[in-house]
Design goal:
- Helix content is 35%, strand content 21%.
- It contains twelve helices and 16 strands.
- Strands 1, 2, 3, 4, 5, 6, 14, 15 and 16 form a nine-stranded mixed beta sheet that branches.
- α1 crosses α12, α3 packs across α12 and α10 crosses α12.
């Protein structure tokens, strides 16, 4: 932890609790903007609905006495001043843009839980040494514009602002144009904004917490990801006259590789291996496949583990190609490094859950979050709560009021510990 970031001893942190009913009402009110017939939410980034959502949340922040800063990529920071304004702020938040068939909680929960922390501190008359800020980042989802985690990526200096401004949606509209149109091009240069520590509350988007009846997930980090395209080239031939021993069946070789992807992932506790897209040529019932193109998605907790998965995959592909005599081409198309979260932040979350009596476990995130880029800049932690059946990016996405409240209670404890 940076020497100029406060950390109040745990014994001095009182077991204050947020107003769960107010937090739930805020979530449901925000979800009305872009509400879908199936009970979800469609609020794509930089649309008129996104502007309405931004305006609503900023209005809530200002009503709570917070000042507002917007940077040039549209990231919004709402600040509750501390007794020592020179200290870097303790920041919490997420995003409020959604998938086209999104739910009420993904991203939105993290922003409104952080806002509820501020409201609760106001109710209790508590002043903190360090400022507290609530942030919502532009275009985390990447459903209208790519890349994903756009606002936090620009803030962290990973994505160039001008390149991002030029990104287009399917209608040819650019990020820069749409930011200006909805009135959210701020004056501050992204990154010219100190952060003492960053915390993000989020639904798990997976089934583990619910399955194990845990209330709080202490996120160790976000898995590193490598995406590949693999092409196996054989020769198409008639399914009837061609004997098995004389076939150059691209699909049979491809399926061996697909199975090995799963096997490689299974050799590591947090490994993930997925083949999600397959194209078979000529895709005819009575023709031996001559070419198969498929995707490979491999993930693990550290870059070293991802590198080892990569090594095993390439070694297997070389062997299969030699044994079969078929051409096998592997191309890496994307690579996201693993993002481990700060051990002190993890310990603070674990301690808060224990003091509050919430069953918890360590967990990893297989999905990307804005906290990934924040971990490059400051001590960072994430708090997970269960979501029903592990379903997210779906209109039926759901987290119970009890779990929503629990995660925000943990966030309150952690923010107090760090802000002093």
């Amino acid at each position: 932890m940076s020497s100029d970031v406060l950390s109040t001893p745990i014994t001095e942190t009182q077991l204050y609790r947020i107003n769960g009913e107010r937090l739930w009402d805020s979530l449901m009110t925000l979800a009305e903007i872009g509400a879908t017939a199936k009970g979800g939410c469609c609020r794509l980034t930089l649309t008129d609905l996104d502007r309405q959502g931004r305006d609503l949340v900023i209005g809530w922040g200002q009503a709570a006495g917070m000042s507002v800063t917007v940077d040039k990529i549209g990231n919004v920071f709402m600040r509750r001043e501390g007794l020592n304004p020179a200290l870097p702020p303790i920041v919490s938040g997420s995003h409020i843009d959604t998938q086209p068939t999104g739910g009420k909680f993904d991203g939105n929960y993290g922003v409104l839980a952080a806002l509820e922390v501020v409201r609760t501190l106001n109710d209790l008359g508590i002043e903190t040494e360090a400022p507290i800020e609530v942030v919502f980042w532009t275009n985390e989802e990447g459903s209208r514009f790519v890349p994903v985690m756009m606002g936090s990526g620009v803030f962290a200096g990973v994505l160039p602002l001008e390149t991002v401004y030029a990104a287009q949606d399917v209608e040819g509209k650019t990020v820069g144009e749409e930011l200006a149109r909805i009135g959210y091009v701020g004056d501050q240069t992204p990154g010219d904004h100190p952060i003492g520590a960053y915390f993000e509350a989020h639904i798990e988007q997976g089934p583990i917490l619910e399955d194990e009846e845990k209330v709080i997930g202490i996120v160790q980090g976000v898995l590193g990801i490598r995406w590949y395209d693999c092409v196996v080239t054989g020769q198409e031939s008639h399914a009837g006259p061609t004997p098995m021993r004389l076939r150059q069946d691209a699909l049979q070789v491809a399926t061996r590789i697909m199975q090995e992807v799963v096997s490689i992932a299974g050799r590591s506790a947090e490994g993930r291996g997925t083949v999600g897209m397959v194209q078979v040529y000529p895709n005819s019932r009575n023709v031996v496949p001559g070419e198969v193109t498929f995707s490979i998605d491999m993930r693990n907790l550290s870059d070293e583990l991802v590198d080892e998965m990569d090594r095993q995959l390439r070694e297997f592909i070389a062997r299969v190609g030699q044994e079969s005599g078929l051409g096998v081409a592997l191309k890496e198309v994307s690579h996201y490094p693993a993002a481990p979260f700060h051990p002190d932040c993890q310990a603070a979350i674990a301690g808060a859950a224990q003091r509050l009596g919430y069953p918890s476990r360590e967990i990893v995130s297989g999905a990307g979050h804005d906290a990934v880029y924040m971990s490059y800049l400051a001590p960072t932690g994430m708090i997970f709560i269960p979501c029903k059946d592990g379903i997210s990016h779906n209109e039926i996405e759901y987290a119970s009021p009890e779990h929503v409240t629990a995660g925000a209670n943990v966030l309150l404890q952690v923010m107090l510990q760090y802000a002093g």
